[in-house]
């Protein structure tokens, strides 16, 4: 577990730059980086200016917190996340969302790019997360528990809020954006999965696979945050699409779906308090 004093020091450093209090936190995945330019901005805080804060090294991931409004909703946007495969500990990977919670966020919206396993999925589809499988990555809660953050043994019966999933579907209906639903499975990466692994994951009930999100959702539920997750299906998983996988394909498909993805997230955030 990351030391509580380190968390407090980072929160204090943010507070020296802005007194803004968010209600909802948003983590931007691949293809959603431009969303941050749409909010009514109150403050921007680069990660590099925060003591001991992990910095993303992945192309397409900027590194800063944005504070502002989506309509009337006060939000903090994480423009660029860090991943376990970058060499950070799992505790460091989830440190940013603990910071956002300490700054006032009560809800967390997670977005990502994922490979589609469900045969009904196509590149460009948007999937609402109903559950996840995190058994292939270390838990971010390993180590001494900090009671100020949450209980030693947090319940994970409903990681992804039914209320927020219903709001996502209502937003999709309003905007004419069809949405899939499914179970997300997280791996460590950075290598893409083998066809044999994808067959295994499908047998376990996974609908999509990626290298983030589940660990963040676990830490958020430990904190008591209400959580929802949305995946952009950027490619068919290994062995299903008939061609090698590449990060370029992921970015290109995410960019093509960006307008729909951003519109959906904006609609969700603008109605999330109701």
In brief, what are we looking at here?
This protein is 30% helix and 24% strand. The protein has 274 residues and is α/β, with parallel strands linked by helices.
Shape: globular
Assembly form of the protein:
single chain
Mean of pLDDT: 93
Strand content: 15-25%
Main pleated sheet: 5 strands, mixed, barrel
Order of helices and strands: HEEEEHEEHEHEHEH
Stretches where pLDDT is under 50 for at least 5 consecutive residues are none
Number of helices: 6
Query: Which range best describes the helical content: under 10%, 10-25%, 25-40%, 40-55%, 55-70% or over 70%?
Result: 25-40%
General description of the model:
By secondary structure, the chain is of the alpha/beta class. The protein is built from six helices and nine strands; from the N terminus they run H-E-E-E-E-H-E-E-H-E-H-E-H-E-H. It has helices at 4-15, 90-102, 162-175, 195-203, 214-223, 247-270, and strands spanning 24-28, 40-46, 64-70, 73-79, 107-116, 126-133, 180-186, 208-210, 226-236. The protein has a five-stranded mixed beta barrel. Helix 3 links the parallel strand 6 and strand 7 (180-186). The longest helix has 24 residues, at 247-270.
Task: Describe the secondary structure blueprint for this structure.
Blueprint: H1 4-15, E1 24-28, E2 40-46, E3 64-70, E4 73-79, H2 90-102, E5 107-116, E6 126-133, H3 162-175, E7 180-186, H4 195-203, E8 208-210, H5 214-223, E9 226-236, H6 247-270
Subunit structure: Homotrimer.
GO molecular function: purine-nucleoside phosphorylase activity
Keywords: Glycosyltransferase, Transferase
